[in-house]
What we know:
The complex is a heterodimer of chains A (604) and B (349).
Chain A: E1 7-8, E2 10-18, H1 23-36, E3 41-46, E4 55-63, E5 74-79, H2 85-88, E6 92-101, E7 114-118, H3 120-126, H4 134-150, H5 154-164, H6 169-189, E8 196-197, E9 207-210, H7 212-222, E10 227-230, H8 237-250, E11 262-265, H9 269-281, E12 286-290, H10 292-308, E13 312-318, H11 335-339, E14 349-351, H12 356-373, E15 376-382, H13 383-387, E16 390-393, E17 407-408, H14 410-419, E18 438-439, E19 451-453, H15 467-484, E20 492-494, E21 501-506, H16 510-522, E22 528-532, E23 534-535, H17 539-547, E24 550-555, H18 561-569, E25 577-581, H19 590-603
Parallel strand pairs in A: 1-8, 2-5, 5-6, 6-7, 10-11, 10-12, 12-13, 13-15, 14-15, 17-18, 21-22, 21-24, 24-25
Antiparallel strand pairs in A: 2-4, 3-4, 9-16, 14-23, 20-22
Helix pairs in contact in A: 1-4, 1-5, 3-4, 4-6, 5-6, 7-8, 7-12, 9-10, 16-19
Chain B: H1 35-49, E1 57-61, H2 65-68, E2 78-81, H3 87-97, E3 102-108, H4 109-115, H5 117-126, E4 130-136, E5 139-140, E6 146-147, E7 156-157, E8 161-162, H6 170-176, E9 181-186, H7 190-202, E10 206-212, H8 228-234, E11 235-237, E12 239-244, E13 260-264, E14 270-275, H9 285-298, E15 301-308, H10 315-318, H11 338-347
Parallel strand pairs in B: 1-2, 1-3, 3-4, 4-10, 9-10, 11-15
Antiparallel strand pairs in B: 5-6, 7-8, 9-15, 12-14, 13-14
Amino acid sequence: MSKRNLVVNDFCITFSTVNGSGSATANTTLMRALFKMGIPVSSKNIFPSNIQGLPTWYTLRLSKDGYMGRVEQDDIIVAMNPATLHKEVQYLAPGGVFLMPDDFNFVNTRDDLIIYRMPVKKLIKDAEVPPSLRDYISNMVYVGVLCFLLGIDLDLIHQALDFQFKGRQKPIDQNFHMVEAAYLWSKQNLEKKDPYLAEEMDGTTDCIMTDGNTAGALGSIFGGVQFTGWYPITPATSLAESLIEYLPKYRVDPETGKDTYAIVQSEDELAAIGMAIGAGWGGLRSMTSTSGPGLSLMSEYIGLAYYAEVPVVIWDVQRVGPSTGMPTRTAQGDLTQANFISHGDKNMIILIPGSIQECFEFGWRAFDIAERLQTPVIVLSDLDFGMNMWTSKKFEYPDQPMDRGKILWEDDMEEFLAKHGGEWGRYRDVDGDGIPWRTLPGNRHPKSGYFARGTSHNEDTGYTEDPEKWETIFKRIANKFETGKQYLPKAIADESQKATLGIIASGSADPAVQEARDLLAKQGIKTDYLRIRSLPFDTEVEDFLKKHEQLVVLDINRDGQLNQLLTMTYPVYSEKTTSLAHLDGLPLNAKWVETHILSLLEVK
Amino acid sequence: MATPVPNPAIQNINKVGLSKADYKGLPSTLCQGCGHNGIAAQIVAACYEMNLVPEKVVKFSGIGCSSKSPTYFLGRSFSFNGLHGRMPSLALGGMFADHTLKAIGVSGDGDTASIGLGQFKHMVRRNLPMVYIVENNGVYGLTKGQFSATAERGLQLKKQGTNPYLPVDIAMEALISNATFIARSFAGDPRQVKELLKAAIAHNGIAVLDIISPCVTFHNHENSFHSYSFGKEHEEPLHEISYVPPKEDITVEDFEEGTTREVVMHDGSQVVLKKLEKEYDPRDRWQALHMLEEAHSHDWLVTGLIYVDPEVPSLFDIYNKPATPLNRTPNSKLRPSHEALDEINRLMF
């Protein structure tokens, strides 16, 4: 094969396996080795809601240009699941590579493919792997074969296994031995006919490899999380589990040996949010993590926290709804639910991270916002961020000290009373910014106690049905959210192309939009881009809407929920705006975005 | 803040220098004669006599007539009136903020025995240190007279007709969920309510008090389990109960030897139970279960300390918590160092 036909660091490998067969170790090992070579690499795990037995796909994308989005076609398929063998072939790009065990009964219907057959059973037998481990270790055969085909140094595989098994020699040896044997077999028996190569580059400098749930948990830890009430739900579970993993490492007081946090696994989401709100009211940096069905259950308590003005952070790692929906697939379908959550009039603060690094950043920032504004903050992540492994920029240390908001302890109360004629009321707007001063249980000052409630109250927390009092409090709360906008992450506009067409998106739609913009630019189509990072919208959003002649709003949901909220907030620009919404449970891909924007422009 | 110094020269001042008025709340807006008002009065008396500092008490409640009542006692204490049946989770979170506080939760039968049954049982199984009072009247008052889940089968109400379902027994539910303190009382027996409240306050764990508290407006029929007349006629106390604070000697003159049983609480205080007709040991779960079954079959309103185990670790004994309240942790201890983040970044591979 001539050098110029080679495809280097710019292709996609999909591993088709059976759920529960232990392929995750093999796949992440390869990903780690590629990352160590300096190649930007991302993965998409498309898996079923099942423990064992259903088909699962894991895609690794190598992209020298750093694109992290999903791609529609595979260049290499490693087919380890006989049940889906003939279907897989359809997803291969022209001239693609098909790798499979040599005992699979495969009828090739395409003449453009390069097929390699691996003697998996023979190699396992020769390696004398204990029967109980055979299924797991057999995945290492394809790791070895791919190392030979793509040119991956076995040392890197060893490093990756060492990391995976935390230095435990036995599993490292067992797995590595299999990789070596398969590599050796390939070297002696395979003739490389395909063009795909992995070569060392410097695309991962200052980068890490992690997932959004880990990032969110670590960000929360650096935000000083003190209490977590949670209930297991896919795809949010690993966020709380990361807290359980990392909190003991980083948040035990070295002076006392005591924990500066508490985690409680609750009986359900109704209790998880109740606990979190109780703790937030008590003055702890408090959070819960859930997904759509859990958020639905939490809605009544979130309304109470809004009205009683209790800080709490709620992570919603979105999956496909409504109802149970597709628990193991990704979506941005909870946006309007989060925005309008719970009955009655409300303002809800929503943070939408658009990268793994932002999952970390919003992890700590959410507490500052919640405590400053004394209100719930919902962080909308999704399964694509939460559970997939990404190459990401390193986590950055918080660039500002913790903002605990307006809290009065005993001495503060004395000072406050001296300044304010001896009076304090929990819901009095003494500063004119809509944010009252709060006290925390345990405060021994005799004037500090108050009665928090979801029933209508006056500024001193007394029950009242007085229409004027109701309106006073309610308008003051609305004002609080006007003040609050300054604390929210601004939408980021890229107007470097000075285009008349503006794209608006949020969250995990970002990688596909970034890539699609490059694809469009290559065809001479200029685009500007606004990535929304929080709600309620602020002036920079309106500026962008105003400035562009044509607008496209991208959503990973059926109804174009981001577009719905924009239209509702800024109806005057709706005529020049088109919603591009797509939901099939898979992460958005650049090709889809490109195609749909192109057809939109043709119609025009 | 200076600690209040008791002045013995002034009458009616307790050991923390407070008068009963310091424990009062706002005037009640419940119906006249409502059992809940009597309970609120006994909470005031018990807290006063136990020398609790109101700022060291935190109140929680759910939704319903009962849950309004925290307004009517301990006006200086922090309080959170939560959602229907979901006060236990709120209290758990709140207590994690400052575990040195005494928590008093007030719920009702509509709150605890219906939507709240799940949270009730999980609170019990976690042994959250809290006095959990169920003001039990068998009826929904605020919505004007519907059956609650503790209403007995066959009960007749004006609008509802006849209740076709069997009742939930809150004490029984608590017992089978491994509650560490269970008592039942009757709002018309203020002395017993107060002594049980004091014992419950001394308990290091969940203390469930199921207090039959008649609804004078919607449910006070002669023959109903949840009425004053029924309670007065059918109350069968298990024992006469007295609470003795720590470091106070019990003398033989106070209690006739051989007729009493003492339970030593976690803090060294004692609950003295004077035997009545029956021999009853509240440390025996099996006996407690048997007694509740027997009471059901005879239609007795058995009151007193049904079960107690003072030695079970509370929720907060299980956690590696600092002695100081978590909500007093300085920010410097909450954010890990730059070095910690560098280490994490190195590990993310």
